[in-house]
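Homework-ish question, so no full write-ups if that breaks the rules, but can someone show me the predicted structure for this set?
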Amino acid sequence: MHNKEIFWCKTCLNMSTRNRIEFDSDGVCNACNWAKEKKSLNWNEREKELELLLGRHKSKNNYDVIVPISGGKDGSYVTYQLKHKYGLNPLCVTITPPLAFDLGSENLDNFMKSGYDTLQINPNYNVMRELNKRGFVHQGRPLYGWTTAIFTAVMKVAKLHGINLVMYGEDGEIEYGGSTESKNKSVFNAEFTKRVYLEGELEATLSGFDEQELFFWKFDEGDDLSEIELAHWSYFESWDPYRNYLIAKEHMGLKEKQGSNTGTFTNFAQNDNCLYDLHTYLMYLKFGFGRGTQDVGIDVRRGAMSRDQGKVLAQMYDSVSPEPYIDLYLDYFEMTREQYDTVIDKWANQDLFVKKDGIWKPKFEIE
Amino acid sequence: MVYGSQNLKLNNRIAVIDYGMGNIFSIQHSLKYLGYDSILTSDPKIILSAKILILPGVGSFKSAMKKIEDMRLDVIIREAVLDNKIPILGICLGMQLLTNSSTEESSATKGLGLVSASTIKLKNTHQKIKIPHIGFNNVEFDKDMSLFKGLTNNLDFYFIHSYMVVSDSKDFYRAYCDYYQRFIAAFEDNNVYGVQFHPEKSQENGLKLLKNFLLKV
Amino acid sequence: MLKKRLIFNLLHSNGYFMLSRNFTLQQVGDINWLRDNYKFWESSKFLDEIIILDVSRTDSDFNKFIDTVQNVVKSSFIPVAVGGGIKRLEDVDQLIRSGADKVVINSMFYSNPDEIKKITSKYGIQSVIASIDYKRNKNFDEVYINNGSKKIEIDLVEHIKRVIDVGVGEILLNSMDQDGTGQGFDLDVINRIGDIKNTSLIISGGAGRVDHFSEALILDYDAASTANLFNFIGDGLRCSREDLMAKKINIPVFDRD
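A: Not a homework solution, just the prediction itself:
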């Protein structure tokens, strides 16, 4: 089938449908160009910027920095570097995910037992569940409640504890494809980010709850975050997910799944909850690329695979539906299978997919 | 792998000689792939009435000959080949066993003596030579040889051996391999055939060669 | 002329084939997966040799392994070397009877070299491949046994000397650092191991792209092996062979109609 409107990055498999992604005149996406740039970038200068930033926040008797974590490889790596290489005192903050995998809980446990101060927040389970459900039905985003809470909760903790630096892992737009607007920006102001982040559907999605129940999803007048700085580790050091995995494995006892995660060929990333598998499957149905394609991109940019080899894997794995977990989803969302399928069907992009024998099949072939 | 006794007569076409040494599984499987059932046997009655004999072999010439002699198979094989004129294909060590003798260690061991050739150690003739000879190497052959019918010259076959077959007679060098020294890669002498390489391990060309041999019958 | 070899290494554990990343295993699929997704029997036409290793970390089912060996041998017409947890001559007897052409032995070279001599006396030194797992450590290389879990006290150079003394046809050097990373082989190792006399050398660990093999075979390695099940699915093995031929590397030529 000849695809006129959609196209793929010439060097990895990023699709033109990806939100905000940028391509150059050779058809190469910004993630690949950045990967090339990373090889010859002056990282010493970036490290100096990091040292200045950390110097501004180093505290004598308090935590200096917050690291949002899940127990997975990325947050673990950032925490490790901040504490052991730069001598800071990080406070790790994690928001318990819905439908957590035992493996995820075990990894978080091992992380904490490796000696890192962690605040584990459990926002109101029912509110989160309702928000996740609304996200699933109205936006095709089943983790909406959780991801919103992660942002808000982290900011609230920062404010409460007077910690004015939050260090995230990677800037996904830069590393994996998206807007390059903030490529050369080392630090962001939390107040500004808050306004941008919370625009859009949030107000509508939060209707029908008591104000008191929404502590982890809403900000008040008094929540002025202008003192707080946000940064991405990937700005200061060349980001390498596989390296993060090896460090987390060696120093925090990170464990992998026995087999691949659904929708991909890797087993060492995003192991904390099974709703993520639904999230990536919906991403596939909405945009045409799944978890397999993303992992292929990472490996191609690492030089560990060629584009052609990646194509075969993406074709094999992207379309895998999270069948093993559907009963869990139905139970969690209090839905029937029919209702669930109706939502899935609603989000499948019919320009890209057609339903055959009850399964959504791609109309396109990766080129 | 022994097939049911009812089928013994039918399957008596190809007998793979069992003296306890050799990668029988692969040989029998290749034959089966080519459409031929075979029987793994040391039974003299079956060997003497077979249409085709295959002599496999992996390991030491001396141990093999001892086993063969202990089982009286030397007498049986000679009778089958010389008297009953049954075609026999020796593979790798099997090919070497068909020769007059082998100079393993310090003494010579007698072989089956069915061809005018002998087995000697591969010589350390070059600083780059790796012995045992393990891997794929090309065989130059005379296009009139029936084993190589339909195959283009200089194809690669799989070798794995430390000893080689040599002969005073030039006629035996119709198919040779050069590995810092020339040795006999395959011979056909009346109804006695031998291949130093493993045709069952040499992809398509190996299978073609096996088929050529089987079609002789 | 003796040709170089492209080898595929199947890692088997209790009926499944595994992917290894820095010696951590991920389950990929069973023999049906191999047949359907890999079309392995088609792909084997582009290989020169197959190695099957039983890498079970817990008690392995030897019979299941034998089944797998036979299935693989039945579906390809190239040499098959088999190993993983071989402890005695009887294990070797059974594997050779089941279709293995050679055996791959690792820990036994360190823990019981006398048993190896029994094996080579019976089957010849050409029937044994000595597999060595190693890790770089500043100025020398460490050697590990038991599926990479136990470091031994001698270094790679010393261990290789001992292996050659015991007597083998081939040595397989497997880089634990490169394993599963897809970043390419540890091409330098040949310069660090001293004189291996007339022993063939197989390099393993790190292949991810089709052009990684030519990088190794253009050097003095006799064969290059990969166990990367994901990266060579589909056309991967065919493209690897084409790449070797395009770069005029001497690999076997088979009759192709």
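Now go work out the reasoning yourself. Hint: Chain B has a mean pLDDT of 90.
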